[in-house]
Specification:
- This protein is α/β, with parallel strands linked by helices and 223 residues long.
- The protein folds into two domains: 3-170, Metal-dependent hydrolases (TIM Barrel); 178-223, Urease, subunit C, domain 1, CATH 2.30.40.10.
- Helices cover 40% and strands 16% of the residues.
- β4 (51-54), α3 and β5 (72-75) form a beta-alpha-beta unit.
- α2 runs parallel beside α3 and α6 (134-144) packs across α7 (148-163).
- The longest helix has 22 residues, at 92-113.
Length: 223
Amino acid sequence: MSSQPLHAASVYTEAELKAAVEAAENWNTYVAVHAYTPRAVQMAIRSGVKSIEHGQLIDEETARMISEKGVWLSMQPFLDDEDANPYLEGSPNRESQLLVSRGTDNAYNLAKRYNLKTAWGTDNLYSARGATRQGAKLAKMVRCWYTPAEVLKMATSTNAELLVLSEPRNLYPGKLGVVEAGALADLLLVDGDPVANIQLIEDPERNFLVVMKNGVIYTNLLG
């Protein structure tokens, strides 16, 4: 599902959304939607959707509904900064972008106020440059809304909780988001303490000394 933030348009009807949710449940999985506005998000929740992607324009009523239904909010800091997509000033896309940027602060504050299950989604792996900015965007969260420990947990164990909702169609069999026997061995060795200095994750090529996925070492700067 998608919505145009500026015009508050919703693409699907509730009947269509409910049909999608029913079809997903028949396959033992769930539906996540792209939705920004209160109307779009509330329609999705009433239809049984389990995760809202984006949601930067939610209001307090919507945040309360998300909390009551135990729905996930998968957000990212869409701000008017160096990571924003370039749009022509005065264009509809630029107006929508500014609207979402202003809503981002409110949405994160509502997420904290209502203790929403908030996941970390970067939404930019289609961009070669954007992929290199994931750590920087995560660190950006500390400037405004969260502590370093909170954002690191959000990107690891909290995100893992969302991923395993697709059981038994989970693409990551095994325990996620923990370091213990029997868990998938996805580990990062950081040159420093990111809890004390979150900026370390902004430069992974220099500061991530070891990158291990499923027990296989892909990067080893220790020699």
